[in-house]
Amino acid sequence: MSLLPHQLELLSPARDADIGMEAINHGADAVYIGGPAFGARATAGNDIRDLERLIQHAHRFGSRIFVTLNTILRDDELEGARQMAWQVYNAGADALIIQDMGLLELDLPPIQLHASTQTDIRTPEKARFLQDAGLSQIVVARELDLKQIAAVRAATDPARTTIEFFVHGALCVAYSGQCYITHAHTGRSANRGDCNQACRLPYEVMDDKGRIIAHEKHVLSMKDNNQSDNLRALIDAGVRSFKIEGRYKDMGYVKNITAHYRKLLDEIIEEREYSEQPLARSSSGRTTFAFEPDPDQNFNREFTDYFVNGRKDDIGAFDTPKTPGRAIGWVSQVGDKWFEIEAGDKALELHNGDGLCYYDLQKELVGVHINRAECMHAKKGIWRVFPKNEIASFKDLRKGLEINRNRDMDWVRMLDKKSSDRRIGLWAEFKEAVGETLGFTLTLTDEDGFSTTATITQEHQAATDAAKAEATLREQLGRFGASIFAVNDISLQLSQPWFVPASALNQLRRDALAALEAARADGLVRLPRAKPVEPPVPFPEDTLTYLANVFNQKAHDFYMKHGVKVIDAAYESKEEEGEVSLMITKHCVRFSMSLCPKQAKGVIGVKGTIKAEPLQLINGKEKLTLRFDCKPCEMHVVGRMKKSVINQHAKEMLEQPMQFYRTRPVQA
What is the biggest distance separating any 2 CA atoms in the chain, rounded to whole angstroms? Predict the structure, then answer.
């Protein structure tokens, strides 16, 4: 078990240990981060020493560190993955996030296992299977609605498995683990951490009669996920781990978005404190911020809550994959080296280094980097902007044009500084020691129930001014500013006011704090590894296609053990040379363009005229076909592997032969 059923976990991303530590400082209950290798973000790996540093910091607050080992693996990589699992376990990591079921057939350490988003959990049956196979936390597909999430929760045991859900960040348009466009076109693999983001490219959309129905539109590019308004509903549906996307994101993003969701979850915990089902944080302490969190300040493609509340027609960022920012005003005048902006909010301030943008007449986003900004008229909100580039280079820049700001240097500089304070509450009791050795004791008890006592030998010296002596004692004993603790109350258990030197009180406090930190470290219980159900439960299907991503013999053995009779090799094995589904997605281009047959139902005059005929996507020489499976309401992006990719693979196999899972297993 990862979480108790009443606990909520805010799960933040980290590109490196320093960002991970700031995620903890800004209220994360857990952080997920890449290890030395085999993570689904190829360039976001971290060495063991950095992981140890992060783990030690997180564990001070009872927060957890989950390490990603979530690529599909070749046979020759399994031993390296096994060794890495032991390395991160010995470093103190709390869980491994995995995709490849072959790992379950290896001699892994007794570390908790979580199912990666790449395992593509869309059904209660798959969720139940992974629970029974020994995974303690499962992240369900971003495409599920509230009823479907609740159905997953109903099919699984809250005492054995935690439901995790992405609540913020970039959206992959495909069901995770079900996109092979990168591999078909380049030989790199999204399932091995090396996606080329073909979904963010502009495409011509052509119908079956050769007519262009969309020109240079980013029709596979989604807006960014934001579930801020749905947290209560997600909790009621059974979600307990709230995951922020972004292992490539910078420090400012992680600070801001972690703080944003920390505040929202704390509000919910507080409002349900006296309800029939109270909730709690899964780690210790309270977090305060030196800024007001604001998701709009970070890079985003505008926001959507995707499918949580059902299908909507505004989930796409079709005009641009860039961040449009926030509207601030209009162009009032254009000069030879500058232009002026009239701000909508007269209190707005522009800064040197700010980023502005606007849409040109083709609805493409044009960026403007401010070299110098001058306030021309404060009351009217008029600012003169001198861009880094020449005015003539800005397409369609004209009077009356709406201007957005997508980078505020004042905000950036604020988040470069210390921006949060996380403290664990404690109670202090100061008593006089009696007996053969005179002195004093200080007992500290924290909010988690850890308690330690420190003692000093000190002569009992009566105070000449009782009120001043008590005030001095409270002041000296309450100085926890340099620690991770905040004192809730100081109790003085004294027969009379005593004078105690400040140096003695400081030493007593330091000793008690050191003992309390040691007690907390000793008392941290490692997350238990779940035992798979015996005998092995059957997988929900008895036949697996390339979509199951089986890339090594151990994964093949795992599925055979669980009753699967026919198993195709992963797409990366180069066996699917014909036309196949290179991406499966819940997003529908026809629906987004109001060409869906279901939308046309009941509309007079169009009966029978709108059908889900295929469409083509064209980007330069790349051509993909869109096919529509209307029963489950899904879209398939269809194509074939390039000859150059197949030829390069054959060349690599000659130069460096590998133990490679390359033949179709037959029914036993």
Answer: 101
CA-to-CA distance for 190 and 582, rounded, in angstroms? 11
Structure tokens at 217: 């539109």
Q: How confident is the model at residue 649 (pLDDT cuts 50, 70, 90)?
A: confident
Q: 238: closest CA among 144, 133, 98, 111?
A: 144
Q: Where do you find CATH 3.20.20.70 in the chain?
A: 7-171+226-284
Q: What is the Cα–Cα distance from 477 to 430, expressed in whole angstroms?
A: 9
Residue carrying the six token digits 């109790």: 491
Count of CB atoms situated within 10 Å of the CB of 141: 23
DSSP 638: E
Distances (CA, A) of 58 to 95, 284, 310, 459, 631: 13, 10, 37, 40, 46
The owner of tokens 């020493």 is: 49
Stretch(es) of the chain classified as CATH 2.40.10.170: 310-416
- Omega before 5 within 30 of 0, i.e. cis: no
d(CA 286, CA 24): 11
pTM above 0.90, yes or no: yes
Q: Give 43's DSSP letter.
A: T
* Amino acid (1-letter code) at residue 290: A
Residue 94's nearest CA partner among 52, 124, 138 is 52
d(CA 183, CA 193): 11
Q: What are phi and psi of 444, to 5 degrees?
A: -110, 130
Query: 18 or 609: which carries more pLDDT confidence?
Result: 18
CA dist 264 and 342 (Å) reads: 34
In this structure, CATH architecture of domain 7-171+226-284: Alpha-Beta Barrel (3.20)
For residue 529, what is the DSSP state? P
DSSP states along 547-605? GG---SHHHHHHHHHTT--EEPPPGGGS---S-EEEEEES--HHHHTT--HHHHTT-TT
167: closest CA among 228, 120, 116, 121? 228
310-416 belongs to which CATH class? Answer: mainly beta
Q: What is the tens place of the pLDDT at every residue in 461-497?
A: 999 999 999 999 999 999 999 999 999 999 999 999 9
Q: How far from chain centre, in Å, is Cα 448?
A: 27
Q: Looking at this protein, which amino acid is placed at residue 464?
A: T
509-550 pLDDT tens trace: 999 999 999 999 999 999 999 999 999 999 999 999 999 999
Closest CA to 230 of 142, 143, 146, 140: 146
Q: Which residue has the tokens 């031993």?
A: 79
Amino acid letter at 490? I
Q: Nearest Cα to 38, choosing from 104, 92, 82?
A: 82
**Residue 425 β-bridge partners:** 486
Report the run of H or E that residue 457 belongs to, with start and end. strand 451-457
* 125-182 per-position pLDDT tens digit: 999 999 999 999 999 999 999 999 999 999 999 999 999 999 999 999 999 999 999 9
Strand 112-115 relative to strand 137-139, pairing: parallel
Q: What are phi and psi of 404, to 5 degrees?
A: -110, 155
